[in-house]
């Protein structure tokens, strides 16, 4: 494992056990995530994106094989150590009455603050940096409840940046956004991964935008399992075509994007 | 701004506390009360007994019990992420009542924990605590299975009904005297703690409040949801255990002494949020302690309104609680649209 690797899987089998049945989602996956790269996990609903995401993040144990986060088994970290390595942006919409954006982003400092959660100088700096990086200065004093879905998602991303972790996981952060907001957020993540040397891993359904903004793509499918690679590699190997080919959808090898046949 | 609000609420609380000493079901002239309070007048007389042995402990009990119930309500609302959660609606108060009913009806007791021997008092408190812990544990268990907030609320209400029906059954096997005492207790009142029992009551409530305040930071993070909280390094097991102890203790000690009191735990946290306009538990928690006491003292005065008789506490708390809850529900609907 070289020092650009942040997460590495060894023959990782993920899934869940229902009753006596083992439902396998990824079978013996060997893969890596690197510093400074923005990676998108693409696949249909029910393919097991969330399960894979949760297993990679150490939230749930693998069925077999292992995950290493920064070179160690996730279970070997205390919850506080873990909270300084990996931050998340989730699909759940928090019910936040009377909380402004700055207060929410400040909660990202919880792993660093004292018993009472008081913010020190470095905490204030981290919060300010996160707000500036994500470009939400004008929202700073707005109530979280008054934000649009896109704005709220940006605030949650700012929270993740305030948490100051080398790895950020996002579970379908663009799901309910309009098209310009989707593009804006994914471009932002692309740039932040590069400029701040972060590993950013997100699941999404937005195939077109993901293909154009992600450094690497993880394809997941119930039958085909997981295939990883850059956009170019996946185009050339024919994997992209194989994963998304449907009647009416044509893969265009000239630009590696999908076209709709009329 | 927050400090100004604390000063205003604090001032109102002190004002209502004083009014509780001067106004009661027995008319005592202000000058006489002054004389008794500040110059030790009427040394062995009945009026002194009313002021010092009845009104004073009642005012102190109200202050503590109101704060305790409000904090219990706040903890439940944050932990279950449900604005309609509260110790009475979720059946925790009923759980305590069941514990109290067991002890009272089997010990053949008459009025309330305040007038019992130490042994009886301890038994009642333990009964109430066991009952509330039982219901809390059940709720936490259900909350793991039921992802739907409304279903959890309904489950809590059902648990409440179930304990009420057990209490009704218990009534059949106990003495008429026991039933009457239990019925009186069930209407709720803040005058069940004698001056001699105040220190113990205060210490028990104090432990519950300290446990609650220690949870301020984790509770702030829990507002984001359990998954976010865990990712931010919050030990959810610790939070659940503390929640169990704090709400259990606060609800059961108040229920044991003052009866099952409705609406204060449910409604007052919302009043506090409306007043302080922040989500930070480091502000909201002390705000709840103070405002809960204040609203309790106000309810005491409202009980006196009919003039010739004393209203039961639970006849008054809905007058304040219901409008607040309706406001919260309608505001919630507006925001979802």
What descriptors fit this protein?
heterodimer, A: 262 residues, alpha/beta, Rossmann fold, 2 domains, 6-stranded mixed β-sheet, 3-stranded antiparallel β-sheet, 9 helices, 32% helix, B: 337 residues, mainly alpha, ABC transporter involved in vitamin B12 uptake, BtuC, 14 helices, globular
Task: Give a description of the structure.
The complex is a heterodimer of chains A (262) and B (337). With 262 residues, chain A is of the alpha/beta class. Helix content of chain A is 32%, strand content 28%. Chain A folds into two domains: 182 residues, P-loop containing nucleotide triphosphate hydrolases (Rossmann fold); 73 residues, no CATH class. In chain A, the strands form three sheets. A six-stranded mixed β-sheet of chain A has the order 5-6-7-3-8-9, with helices on both faces. In chain A, strands 2-1-4 form a three-stranded antiparallel β-sheet, with helices on one face. In chain A, a hairpin with a 3-residue loop joins strand 8 and strand 9. In chain A, helix 3 runs parallel beside helix 5. The N and C termini of chain A lie far apart (48 Å). Chain B has 337 residues and is mainly α. Chain B has one domain: ABC transporter involved in vitamin B12 uptake, BtuC. Chain B is built from 14 helices and no strands.
Q: What is the compact description of this entry?
A:
Chain A is an alpha/beta fold and 262 residues long.
Integer-rounded radius of gyration of chain B: 20 Å
Which homologous superfamily in CATH is the superfamily of the largest domain in chain A? P-loop containing nucleotide triphosphate hydrolases
In the CATH scheme, the class of chain B would be Mainly Alpha
Structural class of chain B: mainly alpha
Amount of beta strand of chain B? under 5%
In what order do the strands lie side by side in the largest sheet of chain A? 5-6-7-3-8-9
DSSP summary, beta strand count of chain A: 11
What series of H and E elements makes up the topology of chain B? Answer: HHHHHHHHHHHHHH
Mean pLDDT of chain A: 90
Q: How many distinct beta strands of chain B?
A: 0
Count of all domains of chain B = 1
Model regions low in confidence, pLDDT < 50 over at least 5 residues of chain B = 110-114
Main beta sheet of chain A: strand number and arrangement?
6 strands, mixed
Q: Total helix count of chain A?
A: 9
């Amino acid at each position: 494992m070289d020092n650009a690797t942040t997460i590495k899987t060894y023959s990782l089998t993920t899934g869940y056990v229902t009753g006596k049945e083992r439902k396998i989602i990824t079978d013996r996956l060997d893969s890596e995530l690197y510093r400074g790269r923005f990676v998108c996990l693409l696949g249909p609903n029910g393919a097991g994106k969330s399960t894979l995401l949760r297993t990679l993040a150490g939230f749930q144990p693998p069925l077999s094989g292992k995950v290493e986060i920064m070179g160690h088994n996730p279970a070997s970290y205390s919850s506080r150590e873990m909270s300084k390595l990996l931050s998340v942006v989730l699909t759940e919409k928090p019910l936040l009455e009377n909380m402004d954006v700055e207060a929410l982003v400040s909660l990202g400092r919880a792993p660093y603050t004292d018993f009472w959660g008081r913010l020190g100088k470095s905490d204030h700096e981290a919060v300010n940096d996160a707000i500036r990086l994500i470009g939400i200065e004008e929202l700073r004093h707005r109530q979280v409840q008054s934000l649009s879905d896109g704005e709220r998602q940006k605030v949650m991303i700012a929270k993740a940046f305030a948490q100051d972790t080398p790895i950020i996981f996002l579970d379908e952060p663009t799901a309910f956004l309009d098209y310009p907001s989707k593009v804006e957020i994914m471009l932002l993540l692309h740039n932040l991964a590069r400029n701040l040397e972060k590993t950013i891993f997100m699941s999404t359904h937005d195939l077109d935008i993901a293909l154009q903004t992600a450094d690497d793509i993880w394809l997941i499918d119930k039958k085909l399992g997981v295939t990883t690679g850059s956009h170019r590699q996946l185009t050339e190997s024919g994997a992209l075509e194989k994963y998304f080919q449907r009647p009416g959808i044509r893969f265009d090898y000239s630009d590696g994007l999908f076209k709709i046949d009329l | 701004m927050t400090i100004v609000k604390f000063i205003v609420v604090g001032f109102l609380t002190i004002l209502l506390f004083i009014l509780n000493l001067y106004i009661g079901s027995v008319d005592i002239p202000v000058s006489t009360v002054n004389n008794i309070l500040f110059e030790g007048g009427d040394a062995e007389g009945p009026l002194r007994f009313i002021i010092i042995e009845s009104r004073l402990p009642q005012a102190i009990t109200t202050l503590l019990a109101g704060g305790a119930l409000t904090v219990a309500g706040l903890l439940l609302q944050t932990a279950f992420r449900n604005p309609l959660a509260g110790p009475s609606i979720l059946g925790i108060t009923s759980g305590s009542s069941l514990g109290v009913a067991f002890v009272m009806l089997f010990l053949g007791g008459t009025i309330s924990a305040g007038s019992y021997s130490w042994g009886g008092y301890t038994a009642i408190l333990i009964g109430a605590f066991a009952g509330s812990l039982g219901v809390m544990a059940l709720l936490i268990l259900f909350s793991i299975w039921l992802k739907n907030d409304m279903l959890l609320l309904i489950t809590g209400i059902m648990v409440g009904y179930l304990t009420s029906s057990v209490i009704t059954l218990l009534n059949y096997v106990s003495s008429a005297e026991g039933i009457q005492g239990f019925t009186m207790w069930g209407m709720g009142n803040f005058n069940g703690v004698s001056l001699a029992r105040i220190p113990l009551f205060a210490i028990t409530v104090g432990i519950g409040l300290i446990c609650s305040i220690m949870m301020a930071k984790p509770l702030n993070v829990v507002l984001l949801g359990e998954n976010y909280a865990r990712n931010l390094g919050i030990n959810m097991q610790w939070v659940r255990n503390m929640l169990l102890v704090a709400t259990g203790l606060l609800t059961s000690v108040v229920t044991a002494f003052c009866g099952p009191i409705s609406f204060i735990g449910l409604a007052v946290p919302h009043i506090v949020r409306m007043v302080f306009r922040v989500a930070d538990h480091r502000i909201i928690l002390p705000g709840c302690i103070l405002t809960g006491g204040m609203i309790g003292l106000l309810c005491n005065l409202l009980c006196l309104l009919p003039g010739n008789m004393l209203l039961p506490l639970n006849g008054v708390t809905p007058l304040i609680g219901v409008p607040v809850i309706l406001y919260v529900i309608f505001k919630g609907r507006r925001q979802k649209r």
